From TrEMBL:
The gene is glnS. The keyword Nucleus does not apply. This is Glutamine--tRNA ligase. ATP binds at residues 33-35, 39-45, 229, 259-260, 267-269. Monomer. Its EC number is 6.1.1.18. It comes from Pendulispora brunnea.
Amino acid sequence: PPAKPTDFIREKVAADQQVNKYGGRVATRFPPEPNGYLHIGHAKSICLNFGIAQDFNGVCHLRMDDTNPTTEDPEYVAAIQRDVRWLGFDWGENMFYASDYYEKLYELAEKLITLGRAYVCDLSEDQMAEYRGTVGQPGKESPYRNRTVEENLDRFRRMRKGEFPEGSCTLRGKIDMTSPNMKMRDPPLYRIKHAHHYRTGDAWCIYPLYDFAHCLSDSIERITHSICTLEFESARELYDWVVQATEVPWVPKQTEFARLNLNYTVMSKRKLLQLVNEGHVHGWDDPRMPTLAGMRRRGYTPEAIRDFCQRVGVARNLSTVDVALLEHTVREDLNTRSPRVLAVLRPLKVTIENWPAGEVEELDGPYWPHDVPKEGSRKIPFSGQLYIDRDDFMENPPKDFYRLAPGRSVRLRHGYIVTCTQVLKDAAGEVTELVCTYDPATRGGMAPKGKKIDGTIQWVSAAHAVDAEVRLYDRLFAVEVPGASGADFKTDLNPQSLTTVTAKVEPSLATAAVGDRFQFERLGFFYVDLDSKAGALVFNRTVSLKDSWAK
Ligand code: ATP
Ligand code: MG
Ligand code: MG
């Protein structure tokens, strides 16, 4: 066990260990429904559940909570496994499927009926809601509540055989229609669904509901601490009831914590699925998505995501985390992993008029800044024809513009100080090229005595630069809480969330491979995308360099 528990759930596990509550066993589970890809919220739950197992020398099960035949798909199972592994966790032998328990769960449902604790109810969904009543008002008992055990067993068996249409009846727990906890007012446990299931096929036409399946799956797997988000707080009483009423030998306990909410982000899988299906993004792994697959493709590392989850912590009070904290964590992580290179996103041609014709000089460019304890450098060709970024030139700049302008000087990174002498334009008045002079005494960027040069900009040699597609991402949503206005959340999509440019990058990047990371100086951290090929490079901007996170 950890020397010092770091959150209230670990404290609880440690206390249970002290009194030998589960005979020394610590078993958690991460139970996604395979109806979508995992997102950063799930990462919090994964880090917590697998983290506790690691800390207490226990196990964490990966369980597909697959009791809803109409939304689940094996593609999602594979994606979930891939993403949990990528995040750095290993379930070993402990891969489970709730759908493997259907027969066992059915037996337990019959047992409940036999014990007089469940009945088949023919009320429609609307009627059931009406009978349930409202908070503060007692509900009404269903007219089917006092069916005999024999009749209930007969009807439940016929439900299983497929004799009834969907919605015509349900199996309900016989609990208390006057309970102040609405969840306890004879909750439905099984419903009819004539639907094909991705694992059990057409073997079943009745499916257990979450409140019945989840706690019993926990019991079957001998889970000790069943950790879930706060929305399930009111379901805990029912969780305990089902475990007790079915008289299963293993009694797991549910503990709730606050889910992760991020501003500028939606995390409901239903909404994420809409974004994918309606083409607002290019797939579940679109780098703008808050999915683990999207973050991986964007260039986030599993270490950064785990660090973020650690910083967010585990608490019981709901809060919204600033997405800038995530970006800040990613920057810190990438700082020591990303060699610095030169790239120009919106190329503007520069001719150095006093450069010896045809000459190419090899400059030495260290990959790492002084505060990163790594070594290595590459050669960068310098010539009389360069590109700089359009943003680094202004024809009529304000005083505090420390980049290039007519008559002004700037330092070219690792190279020389140049001064702009002429601006060439096309017929429409658009700047097409700059003419500059260079000062041969400033090689490596040394300013001549008495001259102060404040600006340093990136550049590439025109004849040597390599073209690359660069995908610049901004937040997927333009507002902090998508949908808060009452309109559909998609009306808050940021129309500028993706900008694609054809950049010029330094020649050393010609051999960049999928998955490589770089910092393009002054522009951000970049990741070589899956679509990238030799001769057709594609970079994603993982995150810009500017940090808006207030420490
Ligand atoms: P969604 O709203 O995205 O559909 P869900 O809870 O229905 O989420 P599941 O696949 O059932 O999705 O979630 C698996 C586990 O991940 C659950 O234990 C759930 O509590 C946890 N989880 C889901 N979203 C978050 C979140 N935002 N923060 C922390 N844990 C989460
Ligand atoms: Mg769920
Ligand atoms: Mg859901």
